């Protein structure tokens, strides 16, 4: 089972308690986006260090452990996306920058006040406090990109978005940048054509997810 991370726009004020609040949260929220083992780059681009919030970890034996999740104002997030556009245009290339613009439009159109990334399963993968540390370093890189127009990817942000030092953002598949919408209409579209099957091998059904191997 993979460690899932989820993004929502919502009018629910904060992080839902799965036992008490999740029905109300679902009713007050828009499209659910999902990723495995990562916080996709386009999600991070919506937030800043001021949106990092700590919650008690209720799913482990360590009673006092806390973890970092993201909760912020949606309108401010859309402005951050737009401010990052020059840096993203250079870093992503034409096709993936078009996807970034589509992502900006999708979030701007969501009729909700807040935005939330649920990270509890991601926190299970590291020591207490490590997720918060990596988020703060990642937001430093994104703020630098807003100020200079240059997107530099340090070790922390590469770890969070699951992009190795040898990978180019211009080549990776769309769901690794934006997650995947849990909706009737599949999104994002495929950006890289699948390789043709070998004449000597049967065609196999592709998995929807390419899991990041740590």
TrEMBL record:
<feature type="region of interest" description="Disordered">
    <location>
        <begin position="182"/>
        <end position="206"/>
    </location>
</feature>
<protein>
    <recommendedName>
        <fullName>DUF4376 domain-containing protein</fullName>
    </recommendedName>
</protein>
<feature type="compositionally biased region" description="Pro residues">
    <location>
        <begin position="190"/>
        <end position="199"/>
    </location>
</feature>
